[in-house]
Structures are given as structure tokens and as C-alpha cells.
Amino acid sequence: MTANQDPAVPDPTAAPPVCPRHPDRVSYVRCQRCGRPACPECQRPAPVGIQCVDCVREAARRAPRTTTVLGGRTPRSATPVVTYTLIGLCVVSFALQLTVGHAWSQQWAFSAATGVVEPWRFLTAAFLHSTSGVLHILFNMWALWITGQALEPLLGRGRFVVLALLSAVGGSVGWLLLAGGPADGTWYQGVVGASGMVFGLFGALIPVLRRMGGSARQIVVLLAINGVIGFVVPGIAWQAHLGGLVTGLAVGAAYARAPRERQALVGWAVPVGIGLALVLLAAWKYVGVGWY
Prior knowledge:
It is found in: Membrane. The chain is mainly α.
């Protein structure tokens, strides 16, 4: 007769199992999928037992991606990554404005005179803010956080970032279209702030909320109040607010009203069309005043 080792009892002569990701850690707990040892840091709860972090990531990678009701790809994480990234860029840029000084703002701010030779300023101006106080950036970041929390999960990250950037450019185009010609002082006046982007996000919320069966009354009231403030309080570029609002409304309406079978087409065709329209409007203005 021979005595067989009970598989439930560890062999005292064998080397203790170690975590593949952390070889210095002994672990007798094994992943239910691959059977490898997993230390406490690499363990993830599963319906039965635990899985290692590598198997969890592989399963997530292979899982089919779903789309939202508006046609955007459902994010794998609930964290509004794009919203936080936009806020982070604005905060870092504001810190550079305070430390580097006027040179940083002058390099990226938008004006009608500089936009024709440095067109990237149509976008970069949205990441600058007035350094005379913190209210400007605080309000814009609060508004960006509020609208981003609502829109990014519904639209998906790709569509949301397109909406935000197009609204920012639309704000600069709005300022350009309503500015005077080269003989006017506004032609050379610098414009900074994420307000055009924020107004575009608020504008997109109106058709999106209606598509979801919600009420957009509070958004409309908020936009009306800010519109009045823009005309009453000096130093506010209401033209940029209007340009961003119109752009956001157009993009949001297209996303919200697209038939299910055409959402993928609308997702790229509408942003391209609106982007082209903004370029043509800017070129029309420059040609009209003899600046191009």
C-alpha cells in the first residue's frame, strides 16, 4: 500500500506560493479564473471567491461595450475623466498665469487681430482666466463640474470632449463675428475664459434633458440671468457667451434628436459640419473686413 498526500494539505517540502505581481509576498489564496496566487493587494472580490487584478482587467477589456441612449460609448468607469481633465488644465493654466505673469496669458489669449495668424488661440483662450480675482475661474470651474457630471455619462467621453471643445471655439468665433473691424478697439482686445465652453454645455443640456424626459426650465432661467449680467456688468464678453451657447445648442440638439440607427453617423458628421461652419464664419469675417 502507498500513502498519497492529501491535496488539501500543503506539502511542507514545497516552496510557498507567492504572488506573481509581488514575488516577495506569500499567498495561499488563489484566483478563481487563472489559479495563480494573489496577495491581498491583487485580490478583487468575485461572485464566487476572488480574482486577481490581471484577470479582472482582462475580463473588462473583453467585455462588449454598450452605448448610452444618446449613442455615446458607455465609459468603463463612472469617473468623469474628461470633466476633471478640463478643470485640471484650467487650474494649471491659471497657476501659470499667476507665476509666469502676463507673458503666459499673452501667448494664448484670443483677439480678432491675433486669431487670423495664430488660429489655435480660438481654443486656448478657454483655458485662461482673469487674474484680477478668483471669482472668474471659480464660477467657470463650478459650472463645468456641474454640467460635466450630467453630460459626460450621457454622451460618452468622446462626444462630450467634442462638445466642450467646439463650444470653446464657438465662443471665440462669436466674439470675432460681433467685434468691430480693425479700426475698432475691440479688434485688438484680448478675451480669456471658459465661459464660452460653459455656456455651450448649458446650451446642450436643454435638448438633452428634453430627450431624457426632464425639464430644462432651470437651465433656461440660469442662462437668462447670466445673459442679463453680461450686458449690465462691464468687462464680460457676452459675445463669447452667445457664440458658445449657439454652438452647444446645435451640437446637443443633433445628439439628442438623432434616430437610433443614425446615432453613429451623427456622432462624427455633425461635429465635423459645425466645425467647418465655424471656420467658414471666421474666414467670412476676416475677408469682410479686409484682414485676410
